[in-house]
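Dig into this one:

. . .
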Amino acid sequence: FVNVSFAYDKKLVLKNINFELKPNTVTALVGSSGSGKSTIAKVLLRLNDIESGRILINGVDALDLPLNCLRNQISYTPQKAYIFSGKIKDNFRFTNKNMTDEEMIKIAKIAQSYDFIDSLPDKFDSFVAQGGINFSGGQKQRLSIARALSKDANIYLFDDSFSALDYATDAKLRKELKTFLKDKITIIIAQRLNTIADADKIIVLKDSEITGMGTHQELLESNQEYIELAKSQGILE
């Protein structure tokens, strides 16, 4: 991201955003509601085009890439967990038609969804109602993450995708992701600081701008916005 700015209805939502993402790293975006976190995901996917600046992927301007080429490189898990009606295995194979049963089981274990799938009478052949209403919020999130991991991409983008998970499941999943996505670019947008405390780089946003960048410990010592978030979540007294 090079001097990226974006306005929505003439209101500046991103202002002079600059950062670099590298393979084999986990980068987290944090900030209060309305700070611009999810907008970064939207402009990366080109759901909205930026007003000024450049987004470069391997040195190529994202605006010069065909949309399907750009989005083929990104696997995105949206804020609201959405799973398709049909069978569980159809969701896994949505972007990977040739996925084997063994690969499906591996991905399900990484996404912490295997145990509850295996407990169902029809397992991966189990029916998914429209919108996944026959599953809990946490189960839907884990299935949504599993579908994203089934896609072979260069960039994996999780937009507040762990919010319905308990802390233990969240921690197990992120540990598995670190190994599974070790050669990839991983971006985690989160509200909970516990979810991103072990990220390689944390970018703090406030009022559409970046106010800090560093590790969890560095930001706890230097960034007022991050300190306030930590206090509000009981991480700091």
